[in-house]
Design a protein that fits this description.
- This protein is mostly helical.
- It has two domains: 4-125, Orthogonal Bundle (DNA polymerase, domain 1); 143-308, Intergrase catalytic core (hpI Integrase, Chain A, Orthogonal Bundle).
- Helices cover 50% and strands 8% of the residues.
- It has helices spanning 17-30, 35-52, 70-80, 98-117, 143-153, 158-170, 174-179, 210-218, 221-224, 241-250, 255-268, 273-280, 285-289, 296-308, and strands at 4-5, 124-125, 185-188, 191-197, 203-207, 233-234, 237-238.
- α2 packs across α4 and α6 (158-170) packs antiparallel against α8.
């Protein structure tokens, strides 16, 4: 039986699915959600609609938002977890990653909560439990791979080598580095750091490691300090996010993996998880914990240290 909670007194009018979806997208934009986030929400909700109207599920048009209930929500979750699925005839798909399943569940839940709060739904639709994911090892580079990357970077251009060093020693996102200006660099004596508007338009301060400082000097700090010129420049002007990601890919690594590597190394170096959350720009510590899963090597080393104390 479909579960709802916190019912309101008077029944609400029927609201069309497409109109509600457009209203939700407008609400996301008004609340300064990024273009990337809004695109993901729209895609995930469209996937639910495709599933709902598929011959193997409800096989009828999704016309109003009130057609959605908790049972269907759980059935959709189960569908997403199938080894392979396709909602479009002839389309070849792979099994959805756990993170993708959870993202789609979260998107649908946010949409339904918004619909309830704006009186498009009479009651709240119960959210299915997220899918637990077990990991053996963190998602960054192991030490040997990190050393190999730094060795490879020595053969790259000074600019590309500096980009790798900034990622490894700051934890910045690729889009943040692409938008970073010299005026965002703050210097107080020997302390350097970035002060900027990060994800969600939140002001963030990221201290600069000595190797980040060295990289910034290579990129032209002496010439451009204090200006609104982008820190990462090319022959034709500022380098965009995709071009920065391509620098990493050319050296055989994903830019986001370097962010995970930084997080892992920061904690191993004695930093706290709250400090790491501040540097990475996370409001929720649960988000930060995704970055700090121990590697199997770390676990073995910890076990050996335990034995050494006897």
């Amino acid at each position: 039986m479909a579960k709802t909670k916190q019912k309101r007194g008077a029944p609400v009018a029927e609201h069309k699915w497409e109109e509600s979806l457009s209203g939700f997208m407008e609400w996301l934009e008004a609340n300064e959600r990024s273009t990337h986030t809004r695109r993901n929400y729209r895609h995930d909700l469209h996937q639910f609609q495709l599933w709902y109207e598929h011959p193997q599920s409800n096989a009828r048009p999704l016309k109003t938002i009130s057609q959605v209930n908790a049972v269907q929500f759980r059935e959709w979750k189960a569908w997403l977890q199938r080894p392979a699925f396709s909602l479009i005839p002839g389309e070849k798909t792979r099994a959805a990653a756990t993170a993708t399943v959870n993202r789609r569940i979260s998107a649908m839940h946010s949409f339904l909560e918004w619909a309830f709060n704006t009186r498009r739904l009479e009651g709240q639709v119960e959210k299915p439990k997220v899918v637990r994911q077990k990991r053996l090892g963190h998602r960054g580079l192991e030490k040997k791979d990190e050393r190999d990357l730094l060795d490879s970077a020595e053969g790259a251009s000074p600019r590309d080598r500096a980009i790798i060093h900034i990622f490894l020693y700051s934890g910045l996102r690729a889009d943040e580095l692409a938008q970073m200006k010299w005026s965002n660099l703050k210097i107080n004596g020997r302390e350097w750091g970035f002060l900027f508007q990060g994800k969600g338009n939140k002001t963030r301060y990221v201290p600069a490691h000595s190797k980040t400082v060295a990289a910034l000097k290579i990129l032209g700090w002496a010439e451009h300090r204090g200006t609104d010129r982008r820190i990462v420049d090319g022959q034709r002007g500022p380098v965009n996010c995709r071009a920065i990601q391509a620098v990493c890919e050319k050296l055989g690594v994903n830019a986001h993996k370097l962010r995970h590597t930084f997080a892992h190394n920061f904690l191993k170096g004695g930093g706290g998880i709250e400090q790491l959350a501040d540097i990475l720009g996370h409001e929720d510590l649960e988000t930060t914990r995704r970055y700090v899963v121990s590697s199997t090597g770390d676990l073995h080393a910890a076990m050996e240290r335990m034995g050494a104390e006897d």
